[in-house]
Design goal:
about 200 residues, 10 helices, about 75% helix, about 0% strand
Length: about 200
Amino acid sequence: MAVQLGITMFKNPARQAATTQPAPERLAAFSDGVLAIIITIMVLDLKAPHDASLRALLDLWPTFFSYALTYLFVGVFWVNHHHLLHHTERADPMVIWANLLTLFFVSLIPFSTAYMAENRMDPFTTALYAGIFLLVTVAFMTDARLRAMDRAARKRNWIALAAYAVAIPAGYLHPAVSLLINLGIAALYFVPDALKRT
């Protein structure tokens, strides 16, 4: 009887699926590694000038500003992502794919940052920069775990999505306005979302 019960439990598909799904800790470790590489790539784009003068450093202000703004965004994303994973009890395939989609768009941030800095924040590159953030937000909102957020947190996500959509055409009107919108959205996420355990 005990042997039969053990065999039945072993063959239970639901039980097998639960034991073969990756733990949230592995998902968090993978995500942390990707974000660490992203920041490293951005740091490597900070090239020291050949001229040893203050003017040479000041000429690099677009690069430093782009790096600082993007570092802030990646940091805010990491804090909220870490908080979200902390409330994840298991990493099912939908969670894994949603996470991979979000990280894919986040991995494009170093390119858009360098592109914007190289072209001294011209309208097109600034609009593209905001567009990448828009895609990150869209991918982040596809995560089923976000359904556990309270109403205020979900509303904040929609506000961020709308603001990024405005920041794209704003980049053509005045790049500084677009960058200020991006900065304001990052400020919205300084405090991680409060989630309910499900």
